[in-house]
């Protein structure tokens, strides 16, 4: 009970910081070395702003810009954490890895790390989607929030035509994967018949 009271107190004490015009702290922090960054060249860069409000189940929303092959693409972020309490506002910047086609950027991402922020802080995170696209980012966070379980996000392009094209490509990829699996299964069955 005391832990919850302390957490709530930290949340309400830091509320004025969230709504003030103060800039984010630790702008001169050293970026965290991300696993993907050690072995691969980035495909692009991202700048994002997250807002989170939580009581039990957390909800996160925000927006961002992907810079890919010399062009900028706006996107929206929605998602949440399984167990979270408090609120925060985060500015994040980072790199995108394994992005071979623009349309593969949109989709569902899973996070592999939790977060703990009290007042102002810096952090890092990695998000990965089903197309193996990785977003490795550093954050500056303001607010009072504790997230005790990995979160997930859905990223959608702001441009509706671009988002529609991304959905169509995803659907076509799923059909192609299913057809490939079916063909491989049939070939294996034929080989098994021949070998008997």
UniProtKB/TrEMBL annotation:
Record region (Disordered): 168-196
Compositionally biased residues, Basic and acidic residues: 170-183
Signal peptide: 1-25
Domain of life: Bacteria
Keywords: Signal
Annotated protein name in UniProt: Outer membrane protein
Protein's organism: Commensalibacter papalotli
């Amino acid at each position: 009970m005391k832990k919850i009271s302390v957490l709530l107190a930290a949340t309400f004490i830091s509320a004025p910081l969230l709504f003030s015009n103060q800039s984010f702290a630790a702008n001169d922090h050293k970026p965290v070395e991300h696993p993907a960054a050690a072995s691969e060249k980035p495909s692009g860069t991202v700048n994002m702003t997250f807002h989170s409000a939580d009581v039990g189940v957390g909800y996160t929303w925000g927006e961002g810009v992907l810079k890919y092959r010399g062009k900028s693409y706006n996107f929206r972020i929605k998602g949440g954490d399984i167990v979270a309490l408090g609120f925060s506002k985060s500015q994040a910047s980072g790199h995108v890895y394994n992005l071979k086609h623009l349309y593969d950027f949109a989709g569902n991402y899973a996070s592999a790390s939790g977060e703990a922020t009290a007042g102002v802080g810096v952090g890092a995170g990695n998000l990965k989607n089903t197309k193996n696209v990785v977003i490795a980012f550093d954050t500056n966070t303001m607010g009072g929030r504790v997230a005790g379980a990995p979160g997930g996000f859905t990223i959608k392009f702001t441009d509706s035509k671009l988002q529609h094209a991304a959905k169509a490509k995803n659907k076509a990829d799923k059909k192609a994967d299913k057809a490939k699996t079916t063909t491989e299964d049939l070939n294996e069955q034929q080989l098994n018949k021949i070998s008997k």
